[in-house]
From TrEMBL, chain A:
Involved in several stages of intracellular trafficking. Interacts with membranes containing phosphatidylinositol 3-phosphate (PtdIns(3P)) or phosphatidylinositol 3,5-bisphosphate (PtdIns(3,5)P2). Acts in part as component of the retromer membrane-deforming SNX-BAR subcomplex. The SNX-BAR retromer mediates retrograde transport of cargo proteins from endosomes to the trans-Golgi network (TGN) and is involved in endosome-to-plasma membrane transport for cargo protein recycling. This is Sorting nexin-2. Residues 1-64 are annotated as: Disordered. It comes from Zoarces viviparus. Keywords: Acetylation, Cell projection, Coiled coil, Endosome, Membrane, Phosphoprotein, Protein transport, Transport.
From TrEMBL, chain B:
Keywords: Protein transport, Transport. It comes from the Eukaryota. The keyword Transport applies. PANTHER family: SORTING NEXIN FAMILY MEMBER, SORTING NEXIN-5-LIKE. This is PX domain-containing protein. GO terms for biological process: protein transport. The lineage of its organism: Eukaryota, Metazoa, Chordata, Craniata, Vertebrata.
Length: 509, 369
């Protein structure tokens, strides 16, 4: 049961992603299988185990690839070991002789394996509908000083057969979440899946917590983070493909999780930077894509607009939250002054009424604070999440462009090689001819793959966007209903308070 | 106590308790107020246009009734500071609640000023009152002579007298109480003003959010797009409701308790001024007594005369003041009670209406497939 459910995302051998400035075809022109897959430019993690990859991050002196020494196949029992510190093997065997790869004759070069098996997964699991509830709770400070960190309890309740138990929990720290995200991003972003972004890192916020300031702002920070982590996990598991990813499952179930390396670079802010850099690079390459599909053009514009609107709404809500908090402070101040007035008053009944007034105002202040929290945690964070999600969406569209570009480039190269071959024929150089023919064969396959990659990513994006749009509506509705419930509750409390105060006011004389 | 007949007595031809200041018109830089009063006989009404200067004219007349014995013991109804179109920020701050709400609270304050005057046993008899309320011509802009009541003219040295120890326990304790209450009331009014201004800001923010949501409406036949657009439109309605609610809450606050606290603050100030005048008179009296004692035989008689006059005047003032303090206490309790009851009733009503509205929105969202 569990085994079939855990069909790993298939290894693919030569899914070769470009880094900025990197040559389309590195020197090694061996067999396809021996070409290392490399990272999406957006991926910041240590998931590349290709040799001679320059570190993308000047600020990270650590040799990211020091441990990238082992060959792995996804079916290999070493898998679990290698999911630890270091590159995730989920994508890449390093120097895979064919034997290591699950032999699927004829599909050895088939990167579509990646996608078609995902399709299978989606269709397969039709019976097990999504039923999962994750909560992140009990933030606990572990350690002291600048090495301290917050550990969070992640509790899962589910009836899905995907999991070993129905209710279980694990302890995770923030960098674990970042590590999970980076792995997912490196596996799925470049093939068109919208991977939910992880919560932002915050040096200031975390430092306060580490230093041990037990004040309201650091409590607020921890709560904000806890909530963000919860939403992040829920979004991730709601994705039918991501849910079944072994990294996700390990994250949710494993009692011990090896520390994610170099999370400085893994933050979603860093991801955002990378995405933006990639986007800029795409623009610089002046990809004038012959968009044959109007759908994509329209959707890209749609997301641009949505981005602008959501940011505006987000700013609006932030302002509302700010004013609400100000109202709370002012109400508390007024309550105090009303109390003083009541104390100084010598008319007994009036004095009592004024003291009651002060109490009512204090209670109303609490309502304001609760409402400000509702404003924030429901709307502000929702909108913030979606602004970040759209960044991921845009990234996925950019990947498609790059995939297209790669395909086109391969085609051009093939053309060149063909011309070169023709020349060789003309000049009658039989020894070089064979090599040329081999190269051409290789390129022809590559072109095919390039085209299929492009078609596949386009197909995936269409599905993902459709899913995104549906989820968006559901998400917003759910949050809005919760928010309205909070509004109704506030009003009902207010009614109670006023009802209680009225006789006091009337009793003054 | 008040045997002498006041030369300027007249009986008012209108009711005092239902005087209304119903409208305010902006004429360039001037604000004109419409004062409506009901005739005592019959069912007629007087409608007169008055500017702030006219109210001040009345106030000056009341202040200058020097021949009314003990007039300085009167706690004069407080006239708000001058309202101006395009007032400076400082002026608006000074006005506090009265500067808000399109001058409606200000009109209420003027109303209260007039009603208190008419109801006052001494002040209501002044002819100027009738003129202000009923004369079709504005009372004229002639400046009445400056009088001792104008606090601004009181020299700085006089302020020292404020702390002068009293001879009467009643007044000593009243002065202390008044000092505390004046401070408390002023602070409470200012802080409540901050509350109202925050509420107004929230209303504006909700309005912005509501408007921005309309920009998210996407045309097209895509069912997902339509679903999202529908969500945006409905949410926009929710925030509209929130805006209306906050606006009502702020208005309720402003027009009832806000106004009440403002009045209380100004009334305590008025009492403070009266007590101060009395204290000054006390100082004068004590000086006169000392002078009479120390006087050389030549001046003795004159000093004795002065001493007697001072004593009489002081007695009159104390008599009036005692009555005034009692009246004042009862009046302010009643005023505050009314303010609190109205405030609570209005907020209760608003809360109920809003709860209904929010509930409707909630049901609508739940029902949205």
């Amino acid at each position: 049961m569990a085994d079939t459910a855990r069909d790993p995302p298939p290894e693919h051998t030569d899914f070769h992603e470009l880094e900025d400035g990197e040559d389309l075809f590195p020197e090694q022109t061996g067999t396809l299988e021996s070409e290392p897959a490399s990272l999406a430019a957006e991926d910041i993690s240590t998931n590349s185990n290709g040799p001679k990859q320059d570190s993308l991050f000047d600020d990270d002196p650590e040799d990211l690839f020091a441990e990238a020494t082992e060959e792995v196949s996804l079916d290999s029992p070493e898998r679990d070991v290698l999911l630890s510190d270091g590159p995730s093997p989920a994508i890449t065997p390093i120097t895979p002789p064919c034997s290591v790869i699950t032999p699927r004759i004829g599909l050895a070069h088939d990167d579509m394996f990646t996608h078609s098996s995902f399709d299978e997964i989606e269709e397969e699991e039709g019976g097990d509908s999504f039923d999962m509830h994750i909560s992140v709770s009990d933030p606990e400070k572990v350690g002291d000083g600048m090495n301290a960190y917050m550990a969070y309890k992640v509790s899962i309740k589910t009836s899905m057969s995907l999991f070993k138990s129905r209710e279980f929990s694990v302890k995770r720290r923030f960098s674990d979440f970042l590590g999970l995200h980076s792995k997912l991003a490196s596996k799925y972003l470049h093939i068109g899946y919208i991977v939910p972004p992880a919560p932002e890192k915050s040096i200031v916020g975390m430092t306060k917590v580490k230093v041990g300031k037990e004040d309201q702002s650091s409590n607020e920070f921890v709560e904000k983070r806890r909530s963000a982590l919860e939403r992040y996990l829920m979004r991730t598991v709601k994705h039918p493909i991501l849910l079944k990813d072994p990294d996700v499952l390990q994250f949710l179930e494993s009692s011990e999780l090896p520390r994610a390396v170099s999370t400085q670079a893994l933050s979603s802010a860093g991801l955002l930077r990378m995405v933006n850099k990639a986007a800029e690079a795409v623009n610089k390459m002046t990809i004038k894509m012959n968009e044959s599909d109007a759908w994509f053009e329209e959707k890209q514009q749609h997301f641009e607009n949505l981005d602008v609107q959501l940011r505006k709404l987000h700013a609006s809500v932030e302002s509302l939250v700010c004013h609400r908090k100000e109202l709370s402070v002012n109400t508390a101040q007024f309550a105090k002054s009303a109390a003083m007035l009541g104390n100084s008053e010598d008319h007994t009944a009036l004095s009592r009424a004024l003291s009651q007034l002060a109490e009512v105002e204090e209670k109303i202040d609490q309502l304001h604070q609760d409402q400000a929290n509702a404003d924030f945690y429901f709307f502000s964070e929702l909108l913030g999440d979606y602004v970040r999600l759209i960044t991921a969406v845009k990234g996925v569209f950019d990947h498609r462009m790059k995939t297209w570009q790669k395909w086109q480039d391969t085609q051009m190269l093939l053309q060149k090689k063909r011309e070169a071959e023709a020349k060789l024929l003309f000049n009658n150089k039989p020894d070089k001819l064979q090599q040329a023919k081999d190269e051409i064969k290789e390129l022809e396959l590559k072109v095919q793959l390039g085209e299929r990659d492009f078609e596949q990513i386009s197909k995936t994006i269409r599905k993902e966007v459709s899913r995104f749009e549906k989820e968006r509506v559901k998400d917003f509705k759910t949050i809005i209903i919760k928010y309205l419930e909070s509004l109704v509750q506030t009003q009902q409390q207010l009614i109670k308070y006023w009802d209680a105060f009225l006789p006091e006011a009337k009793a003054i004389s | 106590m008040m045997e002498e007949v006041n030369e300027v007595t007249s009986s008012l031809s209108v009711h005092g308790h239902n005087i209304k200041v119903t409208e305010v018109l902006k004429d360039g830089d001037t604000l004109t107020f419409l004062v409506v009063s009901q005739k005592l006989s019959g069912t007629g009404e007087y409608h007169v246009d008055r500017t702030y200067d006219d109210f001040e004219w009345l106030q000056q007349h009341l202040f200058s009734q020097e021949d009314v014995p003990g007039i300085q013991g009167v706690i004069f109804p407080s006239l708000p500071a001058k309202a101006q179109v395009n007032a400076s920020a400082k002026a608006m701050k000074q006005l506090g609640f009265l500067g808000l709400g399109e001058w409606l609270p200000y009109c209420k304050a003027l109303e209260s000023f007039l009603r208190q005057i008419v109801a006052h046993s001494i002040l209501g008899k002044n002819k100027a009152v009738e003129i202000l309320l009923t004369s079709s011509d504005p009372p004229g802009r002639q400046r009445v002579k400056k009088n001792i009541f104008n606090r601004l003219s009181q020299a700085v040295e006089e302020r020292r007298k404020e702390g002068h120890k009293d001879v009467d326990e009643f007044f000593q304790s009243e002065r202390v109480r008044n000092l505390v209450l004046t401070g408390c009331a002023k602070t409470a009014a200012e802080r409540f003003l901050d509350v109202v201004q925050s509420e107004q800001k929230i209303a504006v923010a909700c309005g912005h959010f509501s408007a921005s949501l309309h920009l998210c409406v996407e045309p097209g036949e895509d069912p997902d797009k339509q679903a999202f657009s529908k969500v945006c439109v409905k949410l926009s309605e929710v925030f509209d409701s929130m805006k209306k609610n906050m606006t009502s809450v702020a208005e309720n606050n402003m027009n009832t308790l806000g106004l009440g606290l403002d009045m209380e603050s100004r009334c305590q100030e008025a009492e403070k001024e009266m007590l101060f005048r009395r204290t000054c008179k006390l100082v004068e009296l004590e000086t006169a007594r000392r002078n009479a004692e120390k006087a050389k035989p030549l001046k003795k008689a004159a000093m004795e005369e002065e001493k007697k006059a001072a004593e009489t005047e002081f007695d009159h003032i104390c008599g009036v003041a005692k009555q005034e303090v009692a009246r004042f206490k009862a009046a302010r309790v009643e005023m505050l009670q009314q303010a609190l009851v109205q405030w609570c009733e209005k907020q209760l009503l608003t809360a109920k209406e809003t709860a209904d509205q929010f509930n409707q929105h909630l049901q609508a969202f739940r029902g949205m497939a």
